[in-house]
């Protein structure tokens, strides 16, 4: 097993602890004078080089910290200037000419947002005392989607009116507080709307009413595929 330490710091400590003792006891230790002199010079050089390397590493760390600070500063200032260039381009009739002059790529055009998903599973409940019908549905979430509710009415003779918009909501339910008096039923259809793009219509929900005891109730509801 070697007695010479592997770590550089430990090695130098080991050597420095023995320089004076080996020199004073060279004869007793049977050390050749020339070999001892060469070893002593090597120990001195190793100490000097190790110290220089340590100082260089510390200087390098300081240089890296200084470099990073400088890069953060120039990055922030560059971002500020690019922001001003973009403002100038937005105000210019030919924004691409500003970006070309600044040697910057123009911002990419945003891809069109997909149409909203189709509402499904329409169902209705009614408050018999207030006469308010609540319509609910399901739909996969699309950020920024609102829902347009359309309604047609069924007369007592069974005639179906044209559909008309009765509300826009941001949630997946709608309270119809304007049920016409005397109709036999209503038909609903719901469409998602986003950025002026209208998604596919839901299946229609036909709700028929029954009256009794001064209150309104649902006698049946049926879902049919939209035309």
From the helix content, strand content and strand pairing, which structural class follows?
alpha+beta
The CATH topology of the largest domain is: Immunoglobulin-like
CATH class of the largest domain reads Mainly Beta
Beta strands, count: 9
Mean pLDDT: 92
Straight-line N-to-C gap: 91 Å
At CATH's second level, what is the architecture of the largest domain? Sandwich
* Strand-residue proportion: 25-35%
- Helical percentage: 25-40%
CATH superfamily assignment of the largest domain?
Immunoglobulins
- Unreliable stretches (pLDDT < 50, length at least 5) are none
Describe the global form. Answer: elongated
Biggest sheet record: 6 strands, antiparallel
Radius of gyration: 43 Å
Order of helices and strands: HHHEEEEEEEEE
Number of helices: 3
Counting structural domains, the number is: 2
Walk me through what this model shows.
- The protein is of the alpha+beta class and 227 residues long.
- The protein folds into 2 domains: 8-89; 120-224, Immunoglobulins (Immunoglobulin-like, Sandwich), CATH 2.60.40.10.
- The protein is 37% helix and 29% strand.
- It is built from 3 helices and 9 strands, in the order H-H-H-E-E-E-E-E-E-E-E-E.
- The chain has helices at 8-24, 33-91, 95-101, and strands at residues 120-127, 132-138, 146-154, 164-169, 173-176, 185-194, 197-198, 204-212, 215-224.
- Strands 3, 4, 6, 7, 8 and 9 form a 6-stranded antiparallel β-sheet that branches.
- A hairpin with a 2-residue loop joins strand 6 (185-194) and strand 7 (197-198).
- Helix 2 runs antiparallel to helix 3.
- The N and C termini lie far apart (91 Å).
């Amino acid at each position: 097993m070697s007695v010479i330490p592997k770590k550089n710091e430990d090695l130098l400590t080991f050597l420095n602890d023995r320089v004076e003792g080996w020199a004073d006891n060279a004869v007793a230790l049977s050390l050749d004078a020339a070999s001892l002199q060469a070893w002593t010079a090597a120990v001195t050089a190793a100490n000097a080089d190790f110290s220089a390397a340590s100082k260089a590493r510390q200087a390098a760390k300081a240089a890296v910290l200084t470099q990073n600070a400088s890069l953060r500063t120039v990055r922030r200032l560059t971002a500020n200037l690019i922001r001003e260039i973009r403002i100038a381009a937005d105000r210019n009739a030919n924004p691409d000419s500003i970006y070309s002059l600044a040697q910057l790529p123009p911002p990419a055009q945003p891809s069109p947002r997909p149409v909203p998903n189709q509402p499904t599973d329409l169902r209705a409940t009614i408050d018999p005392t207030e006469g308010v019908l609540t319509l609910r549905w399901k739909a996969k979430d699309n950020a920024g989607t609102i829902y347009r509710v359309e309604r047609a009415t069924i007369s007592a003779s069974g005639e179906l009116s044209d559909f008309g918009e009765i509300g826009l909501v941001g949630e997946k339910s709608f309270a119809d507080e304007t049920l016409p008096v005397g109709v036999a039923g209503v038909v609903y259809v719901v469409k998602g709307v986003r950025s002026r793009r209208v998604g596919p219509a839901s299946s229609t929900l036909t709700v028929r009413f029954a009256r009794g005891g001064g209150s309104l109730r649902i006698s049946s509801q049926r879902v049919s595929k939209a035309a």
